[in-house]
Every structure is written in C-alpha cells, then in structure tokens.
Description:
Elements: E1 6-11, E2 14-16, H1 17-22, E3 37-39, E4 44-45, E5 48-49, H2 50-59, E6 66-71, E7 84-88, H3 93-103, E8 110-114, H4 122-131, E9 138-144, H5 145-151, E10 160-162, E11 165-175, H6 177-181, H7 184-193, H8 197-204, H9 206-213, H10 219-230, E12 234-238, H11 250-260
Parallel strand pairs: 1-6, 1-8, 6-7, 9-12
Antiparallel strand pairs: 2-3, 4-5, 8-11, 9-11, 10-11
Helix pairs in contact: 3-7, 8-9
Amino acid sequence: MSTRLAAVLTAGGRVTREKFRAAGAVVDDGMGDDANCLPKCLLRVGGRTLLETALDAVRGCDRVEKVVVVGGARLQEWLHAPGETLIAEQREAHENLIAGLEAVADYPRVLYLTTDLPFVTPEAIASFIDACPPDVQLCYAIVRRDLFESRFPGSPSTYARLKDGEFAAGCAALVDPAVLLERREWIRQVAQRRKSLWRLALLAGGRILWKFATRQLTVADVERRAEQLLEARCRAVECDPVLAYDIDTPQEYLYALRYADGGTD
C-alpha cells in the first residue's frame, strides 16, 4: 500500500429538526441553514459533532496526508490541521463525491468516508486500509451482522441478506480516484439508488436481481458484477462495526446518544 493517501469526507447531508424533535431528539444548536434544517455532520454525540469525530479519526491515522471535506461554508471553522481543505458542496450527493475526488485526483489511493459515523476511530480506519489489497481499485467496507450486533446490540440498523451471510454496508471505501472519475455516470446511478438494495440490484442486472431475491447472491457475485460494470478490480472488505454505524434517522441518532452514554436499553 502506498504511503501517499488522501481522504475525502462528504458532509452535505441535512436533517429536518422537526422530524428529529418529534422522535425526542434535541438538535437546537443554532447551526442550521434555516429554522428547520441542520447539516447532519453537526449533530452531536458524546459532546462532539459528527464532523469533529470524523476529522479526529482521520487525523489520528498517520496514513493520510491530505483531507478534503465537501460541505457548506460554515464547516470551515472545524478545519484547522495542515493539509485540510474545504470544497464547496454541490447540489447532489454524487456530485459531492466527484468534487472531492477531483481535488485529490493526483493521489493513487483515496479514502472515502462519510461524516455521520459517531463512533469511528483512527484504529478502525487504519485496520480497514491495511485490509485492502494494494492492487484493487475499489475496496468497499462491509460488516457481518453478528459482529455488528455484538458491538451495537438492538440497533435500528438494516442488513443485506446474502447466501454467505447478512451484512451491514460500511460508510468507507478505498479507491483509485482516476478509475471512478472515468465512470461518473456509474457513480450517479449508484448514489441515486444507494438507499434501496432492490434498486441497486436492478442496476446490476436481471441475474443479480434474481439471485438477490432468492437469497443465492454471494459477496463474490457482487464483486464480479462491480468489476464488469467498472472495468476495474473490486473487493468487499470486512471492517470494524464503527465504520458501518451511521446516522440517517432519528431512531439511529437516539440509539447513538444512548450508546455514547453507556446504555442501549
């Protein structure tokens, strides 16, 4: 693995204050774009914003020499370490990833990380990087359900049921930026379907969809199809569960708050 590594952290997601309040979550910190909107990365867990947690985890991993955060202008105040840059967010999620990759296109490998991981650590990032084969252009983090639930018991997470097990999708990838930048349309389609396993399976084609529906689909099947679509080597890499616990819903946020306080009941 090359020692030259950059990181792209996307931070463009928003949450609705009213929706989170209705579930019992307090998000009144005055940092929203308007009265009812808050950048998700500014939710607080364990006394820190999610953005601070992500940045500290990347800063603590000595493999990364440059960090690009893609988000709103107000996030600049959290960036202060050498090599950290803020890139203006775009209108769509896939455009944020592309903008980040363009800013680090001269690097042979780039760590992609979302900024809604409340428990991510430098050790989890380093372990994932070490587990990624150096000759693979796209490595994507996954976690087996039993391992995930042993770490986060009773969490409101979802899993993909495959022939070789149930898996939670991670929120980290190690990529060759040149390969992905050559396939921007593929990035767009995956980003638009990322919340639906069925729609992702449809994107992959009828054979993959049938195998997924009948629970005959394996991790190796997914890897092979991704390689065909990208014309690059792809691998799913098992990772620490903290790289898969992200916050998309009020229920996931409330669980994270309880977990950070030492309880999950």
